[in-house]
Amino acid sequence: MGDHHHGPAKGLTRWLFTTNHKDIGTMYLWFSFAMFILGGSFAMIIRAELFQPGMQLVEPAFFNQMTTLHGLVMVFGAIMPSFVGLANWMIPMMIGAPDMALPRMNNWSFWILPPAFLLLASTLFVEGGAPAFGWTFYAPLSTTYAPPSVTFFIFSVHVLGLSSIMGSINIIATVMNMRAPGMTYMKMPLFVWTWLITAFLLVAVMPVLAGAVTMMLMDIHFGTSFFSAAGGGDPVLFQHIFWFFGHPEVYIIILPAFGVVSQIIPTFSRKPLFGYDSMVYATASIAFLSFIVWAHHMYTVGMPVAGELFFMYATMLIAVPTGVKVFNWISTMWRGALTFETPMLFCMGFLVLFTIGGFTGLMLSIAPADFQYHDSYFVVAHFHYVMVAGAVFSMTAAVYYWLPKWCGRMYNESMGKTHFWISFIGFNLAFFPQHFVGLAGMPRRIPDYALQFADFNMMSSIGAFIYGASQIMFLYNVIATIVSGKPTSDEKTWEGAEGLEWTIATPAPYHTFETPPAVR
Amino acid sequence: MIAVSKNPVVDTVAKLVVVAIAMFAFVFVVMVPLYNVLCEALGINGKTNAQAYTAVQTGIDESREITIQFVATNNQGMPWEFKPSVTIMKVNPGASNDTVFFASNPLPDAMVAQAIPSVSPSRAAEFFHKTECFCFNQQPLDGNSSAEMPLQFIVDRDLPRDIKTITLSYTIFDVTDMVSGAVATR
User: Fold this and answer.
1) Looking at the domain A12-502, which fold is it?
2) Is B42–A304 a contact, with Cβ atoms under 8 angstroms apart?
């Protein structure tokens, strides 16, 4: 940082060798959008196959590869990197730091991601096909009965885990050491808070995931028997280890989304966030609870009743801090001077739909009832309400909200609003009927289904196509904004916006806060 | 950034790297053993003793009879014939009982098998003691041959009175590749 260049380098090497947090954030965001399109096209194949009962388009084996890759790509390739990209762009600007604490590691943690996903996607073309054991890769499906490409999958998970760990170490180091003078912890914007806690979760559980896939690797190639009963191991152990990672992972995905919503709702309510302190404590409580509820994903595995009860009550407890957050957002809007620009619309969509997803989560947490819901389309509907309408909607809101600051140009507002309404209708048409078919007994991860589910599945597929197509409009709007949007140089794009990122010039200069700002 | 005598960023990073490595180690050295210890101690998953139980003379409880059911299952792809000699026994708690399982290898090559037991209901697992069991060891069998494999067990006198039937299930696995040390060709 001590050298004297003031603008970005030119050409491809700018992106290869950059250590600038804005460049790296941009690359993360574009990469995650590409993965979003890739994972989305897998989803389109799934929904096209399920458009009608009977085998229509693809072989069952390929269908299983699609469900597996759709989940893996969306979770690890689209949602997680998109929020890391947002963190890279926004955290230094929000805490008044000139860059991330470890700029070179930042470059590295991005650039190992594309090869990892290239490796994963390449398995589609190898003999035996891509992994087909579901994104949860339960042993022995993923060990004894796995296709040979599972080894590629394992290496890919190792690499992207490493990327996540490096990224989160960087975020923690930045937030803990590089805040502007006067920026105390309890003055940090909530997006920074949620990311700080998320980063701690990542450092704690990504190594657990790495451990799980390492055990798989050893079982497959080195003759150990961690998950093989024949050698004294136990396949159920895999599920415990996986969900010990997997449940915190759920909050790794949703906490940054909470942070985004906590930035945007106050702006368009023209009021400060209601209950800032309680938001921080609620986030921390959710993070803590996420470590002691993992077995609610595996009620049907044959746990003792005491275990079922413990995990049931602990899970229900999460509704308390989550409820605190939802009520705080609503209270923020109460008697605010509300306007409904595109970012706010997406946040409102988030609020309504995430709450529905939270309630179906509560239904699933009830151990005796879960035996009916388990592995049905009800579960699929539940987690798409929290993953898509939760994480993806808030990420979309974030892009519309900060895009003018990033590129100094205003997006097309009416196209943005159209994007929201088409997304909202398409999303609900796709996933609401899945609650019904799930309750009626349609299992997840099947390429064919009983005739009585035909109508709802056709609705679901049509909704999915609408939702998918609306993302093309989003892509077009973003590109059109960058290329030829209406220039804006207002420091505050939004009248009600607060925070350090709105005190710098628009578009944000390549280097910001080289001298730390004074925080009141 | 000019390095001061002690850079706080380096300090933070060092601590976090230690946490990450510790969590990786935690999976192997804590979670796996802890899972096995808990399962065995609490009888979760119907896990029974993996080593011979040393019988303690406690006398026989003549007041009740427990029905023991035997189930034999072949793991996927295991070609052996594998079955219990009797499928149901009535036993008194505290008494020592003997039975045999029958196995035959229909293939021309020698094979090694491992039987894995599971007890249902799982609450009964800690009260079901095997004093001798073919499942304690791997079972080699020459091609086209058969064997009778002995099982000796005691049902504990402390078995809860509401449990009247215990099912002992064995799944037999082909472990020939594991024993020969050959890594499966895949």
Assistant:
1) Cytochrome C Oxidase; Chain A (1.20.210)
2) yes
